[in-house]
Give the backbone structure.
Amino acid sequence: MSTLSLSTPVTVPRAPLYKSLFVQVVVALLLGIVIGMASPAFAVSLKVFSDAFLKLISMIVAPIVFCVVVHGIAGAGDLKKVGRVGVKALIYFEVMTTVALAVGLFLAYLFGPGHGMNVDTATLDPKALSAYAENAHKLQGAGIGSFLLNIIPTTSFDALARNDVLQVLFFAILFGISLALVGGETGARVTGLIESLSTVLFKAMSLIVRLAPFGVLGAVAYTVGRYGVGSLQQLVSLVALFYVAVAFFVLVVLGVVMRLAGLNIIKFIGYLREELTIVLATASSDAVLPQIMRKLVHLGVKDSVVGLVVPTGYSFNLDAFSIYLTLAVVFIAQATNTPLSFGDLLLVLGVSLVTSKGAHGVPGSAIVILAATLNAVPSIPAIGLVLVLSVDWFVGMARAVGNLIGNCVATVVVAAWEGDLDRDQARRVLDGEAPAPGLV
C-alpha cells in the first residue's frame, strides 16, 4: 500500500527572504497594525480579506480530515491498535484539560485580576448577551445524551457541508473501519482513490494558503481599527494574565510532557512558527489544520495517529480555552465582589469539565460556553459576562494558539505512548537537519 501524500517529505530550494510565507505574514501583521491605527474606518472594511481567507480554508478542511482519517485507519491494518490510540488520546485529553482548568483557577486566585473593579451588576446591559443567551441555555440543558447524539451527523453530506469536524471524524472512523474490514481488491481500490483525492486536496490547500498574508492583514487591521489599542485599558490585567497563563502552560506543563517524550518544546514551537503566526493573527486554528497534520507526519508521527488525534483534539482537548474558562469565571466573581466558597470552586471545576467539551460548532463558542458555565454556578451573576465581551477577540488569539500547540503536543505524546513516534526523525527535523514541508 502506498504512503499518503501528506507524509512525503518535500525538499524546497531556498528562496529569497521576501518569498518566505512566514516573512510575508509578519509583514502583513505589522502593516495591519499601522493601517488600523492610521485609518480605523478603512481598516474595518479590510475584514473582508480575513473572512474570505477563512471561508476558503473552511471549504476544504472537512474533506481533507475525512481523507486523512480514512486512509490512516485503513492503512493501520490492526483495528485494535486504532481503538487503543483513541482510548489513550481521550485519557490524555481529560488529564490535560483538568490540569488546564486548575491552572486557570490557581492563577486567578493568586493574582486576583478582578479585585478592585467593584462593578455594580445593575449597571450592566443584559442586551449585550442576547445573541449568546439562546445557545448557552441549549448547551446547558443539553446533557450528555444530547451531546453524544450531536456527534452523529444527520447525513454524511450534512456534516461535510457544515464543516463539523467532530461529525466528519465520526463518519470517517466508521468508513475507515469498514474499509479495513472489506479489504481485498475492493478495499485497495477505494483506498487508492482516497489517497489520490487527498493529493489533489493538499495541492488546493497549498494554493489557498499562499493568500494567508491577505487574511492576516484583514484580521489585524480590523481588530486594531474596530477596538483600538485603548480598548484593553480596563481589562488589561485579565488579558495579560491569560497570556501569561497560556505561556506558562505551554512552556512549563507541556514542556515537561514533551521532555518525557524526548523532545524540546521550544524547538517544537519554532518548527510550527508559520502556522502559529497565522493562527495568532486570525484567531482561528482551523486555518492551518491540514498543514499541521502534514507537518506532524513529517516530524515522525504515524499518519494514522495524526488523523485520529488532531481532529478529535479540536473538540476534546482545548487547553487554552479551559484555562480561560476558569480564569474568566473567577475574574467575574472578583469584579462583582462575589465571594466564592471551596464548594463553589469545585462546582466551577466540575461544570467546566463538561461545558468545555461543547465548544465545537457553537457560534461565539467562548462566550456561549462561559455563559453556560456561569448559569450552572448560581452564586456568580451571569450578567458579569458583559465585562469580558469587549476583549474576547484579543483573548481569542492566545486561546487559538494555545489550543493548537496543546493538540500538536497531544499528538506527539500519544504517538510516543503507542510507539508510533520516530524520535530520531523528530530530532533531525527539530534541529533543522531534515527539510520541513512548510506551508507550500
About this structure: The two ends are 26 Å apart (CA to CA). The chain has one domain: 5-430. The chain has 21 helices and no strands. Residues 79-111 form the longest helix (33 residues).
